[in-house]
Amino acid sequence: MRDVATATAGLFVSSLASGQVLLEVGDLPGGGVGTVPRAISADGSVVVGDVDTGGFGIGLEGFRWTRDTGIVGIGDLPGGPDFTRAFGVSGDGSVIAGTGRGLLPGLEMTRWVGGGPPTPLGFLPGGGQTGALAISNDGLVLVGEAVNPDGRPEAVFWTELGGFVRLGDFPGPVGDPNGFVSQALAVNRDGSVIVGRGRSERDFEAFRWTAATGLQDLGLMPDGNLTVRANAVTPDGSVVVGYANVAGGGRQAFRWTSADGLVSLGDLGDPANSVFSEAFDVTADASMIVGRGSPDSGPNTGFVWTQADGMRSIASFLSNEFGIDVTGWTFDVVFAVSDDGTVLTGAGANPNGEAVGWVAILTGDDCPADVNGDGELTPADFNAWVIAFNNQLDSCDQNGDGLCDPADFNAWILNFNAGC
Residue 260: which of 219, 232, 207, 288 has the closest Cα? Predict the structure, then answer.
């Protein structure tokens, strides 16, 4: 039987029993440079990203993380080197999208379905390598970029029925043969709305694409900034978030709607001192936006933005709103948030100074590991679980399968170490 250290799926931070916890994603065998979570399923159950297994990006492996299983590598393409990356996950976590290297030279858009091995989706016909950067909630549409027949990166989407479809680009700088560049970075629930960036005659600009409109330029911020990038879109396709370079230097996170255009989300610090913020994801109702920004002092840090409270550091958000102990933690960035805003993930460093991926779970106070119901997690809860097991009580069922059996012991260990 595994001991507590072996069975843990994450690091328990709070000493109180709570459904609101901060967990480490962990590492894969051979990893050691850092784990980077990049996306989260709409329901918050699955986090995906990659681990630098060889150092300095020489070897990368995509991963899938759940609270029950911890971090699990998703493997390499058949015959390929140690290189896969996971950038997107379907709404229920069953399909993962990313990129990998197989037998042929160059990167290939890659899909993992139902926990099976990674499947390469090939190259763009007449063109070159491909890569997926996001996937629709229904798992049917992968979006990203491909090298087109002219040797330029172009936004594409892929479906099993239609294969690769090119999205084109804005008219680039006149006379510049390298001006054609576009990239699809996010997609809505059913794949009908795709957002990203393309190069116009001015600079890179954010786009919103539908089959009816083609590439729609999202415009500029009021200060006439250049270089705009759309990073995420709500499931219904109505709200887009991203960032834009601002006149005079700096960068500003934005929220876009058809009614209001690009609206700045502000910054963590005084704009007179610095202007730097980037938005990476948004909840389904657009009430919460996450990313990273620049405070008045210290390095950039992850942020949470809400309509009511504006932009706050993720550390103050977790501590002040949910009572999570973040002492010693640093939060470099918040990359993703679940549709309902109750699960967030990103990268940073733990109290030991180790680079880690993290997941914050902000659900209610239900805590199955607190078997004796005293509001704390102590060894006394193990004795209470043994009693529940011997008497087939409801509190014995720690994995939610409706049974009381030996598997619930391992589930109790995972719940205990996870802090609930």
Answer: 219
Taking the CB of residue 20, how many other CB atoms lie within 10 A of it?
Answer: 21
E strand segments, 30-161: 35-40, 47-52, 60-66, 70-73, 84-89, 95-101, 107-113, 119-120, 130-135, 142-147, 153-159
What is the C-alpha separation between 142 and 191, in angstroms, rounded?
8
d(CA 165, CA 70): 36
The pTM (predicted TM-score) of the whole model is 0.82
Query: What pLDDT is attached to residue 55?
Result: 56
- Token output for 299: 């390095």
Give the Å distances, CA to CA, from 227 to 66, 143, 167, 244, 255: 36, 21, 19, 6, 15
**Whole-angstrom Cα distance, residue 391 to residue 403?**
13
Structural tokens at position 313: 């550091």
Q: Report the C-alpha gap between 194 and 112 in whole angstroms.
A: 21
Specify whether the CB–CB gap between 197 and 229 falls below 8 A. yes
Q: DSSP assignment, residue 394?
A: G
- DSSP letter at 92? T
Amino acid at 94: S
Q: How far apart are the first and last CA of the chain?
A: 21
**Cα 213-232-33 angle, rounded to 5 deg:** 140
| The pLDDT of residue 343 | 95
pLDDT of residue 54: 67
Of the candidates 174, 187, 127, the one whose C-alpha atom is nearest the C-alpha of residue 153 is: 127
Q: Cα–Cα distance between 324 and 333 in angstroms, integer?
A: 17
Residues 6+ apart with CB under 8 A from 299: 330, 332
Helix or strand holding residue 414 (H, E)? helix 407-418
| Cβ neighbours around 397 below 10 Å, total | 20
Query: Rounded to an integer, what distance in angstroms lies between the CA atom of residue 89 and that of residue 38?
Result: 9
Could you say which residues of the chain have pLDDT below 50?
1-17, 57
Cβ burial 115-132 (10 Å sphere, 16+ → b, else e) = eeebbbbbbbeebbbbbb
Q: What pLDDT was estimated at residue 9?
A: 34
CB atoms within 10 A of CB 333: 22
Contact (Cβ atoms closer than 8 angstroms) between residue 165 and residue 137 = no
175: left (phi over 0), alpha (psi -120 to 50) or beta: left
Give the Cβ contact number of residue 51 at 10 Å: 26
Helix axis angle, 407-418 relative to 380-390, nearest 10°? 150
